[in-house]
Amino acid sequence: ETGVTQTPRHLVMGMTNKKSLKCEQHLGHNAMYWYKQSAKKPLELMFVYSLEERVENNSVPSRFSPECPNSSHLFLHLHTLQPEDSALYLCASSLTTSEYEQYFGPGTRLTVT
Amino acid sequence: AQKVTQAQTEISVVEKEDVTLDCVYETRDTTYYLFWYKQPPSGELVFLIRRNSFDEQNEISGRYSWNFQKSTSSFNFTITASQVVDSAVYFCALNDYKLSFGAGTTVTVRA
Q: What CA–CA distance (Å, rounded) separates B36 from B90?
């Protein structure tokens, strides 16, 4: 596989469920990101990891819990979500967090019922 | 305060027309990076261009061109002779000490 992959591509979950989103990058990058994209809203940066350390957490509710076990993998653990959390969740990676462009995965379309 | 402003929410053109997307940014840093991304209906954002603050040369890549003007803090993007496949949401982004995306401009190209 090449680039940035995300699984699953679609997810429907109830408010009491626990699920995880997975992201994998095959680009040798050191930085990884989670974004939330809701309809009619700007792209929201949620978390930033650099060399497996979280360097940015943009006031995201604790029901979203990121995990970066190594520089190639990033997870977003979800629990007790709300309907307003339904959105497209995008993962991205870049060589570093500062000057380089990001490469995005195809996203996970999440629906919370 | 919004650091990246894309004033045009939606633009609709007929095929072969040119379309220019505006991007105005705000930063106090002297070193920063600007980007444009394309998000087609499939959903995956695609990187188009990166420009650092010390390089004000305009760039042309096929039908795409970019005009970077530090004096007006703008980094505008023009699609020449637009095609239906150019229909997408286009995002401008700034990375100074923090990464910021604009709200995006939806471009619809009609056949």
A: 7
Q: Which residue of A has its CA nearest to B35?
A: A101
Q: Which two tokens stand for residue B31?
A: 């070193």
B52–A99 C-beta distance less than 8 A: yes
Question: Which of helix, strand or coil describes residue B13?
Answer: strand
- Residue A62: count other Cβ atoms within 10 Å of its Cβ: 7
Q: Do residues A19 and A10 lie in contact, with contact meaning Cβ atoms separated by under 8 Å?
A: no
pLDDT digit string (tens) for A78-100? 999 999 999 999 999 999 888 88
Reported as a single tens digit per residue, the pLDDT across B28-70 is 999 999 999 999 998 889 999 999 999 888 888 899 999 999 9
The answer to whether the Cβ–Cβ distance between A106 and B42 falls below 8 Å is yes
Question: Least CA distance to B32: which residue of chain A?
Answer: A99
DSSP A30: S
For residue A83, which phi and psi values (nearest 5 degrees)? Answer: -55, -30
Q: Do A104 and B46 touch (CB under 8 A)?
A: yes
Closest to A92 (Cα-Cα) out of A43, A59, A53, A58: A43
**Does the beta-carbon distance from A43 to B91 stay under 8 Å?**
yes
- Min Cα distance A104 → chain B (Å) is 6
Residue A70 C-alpha, separation from nearest chain B C-alpha, in angstroms: 22
Give yes or no for B13 touching A (CB within 8 A). no
What span, in angstroms and rounded, lies between the C-alpha atoms of B107 and B92?
A: 13
Q: DSSP assignment of B37-67, as one string?
A: EEE-TT---EEEEEEETT----EEETTEEEE
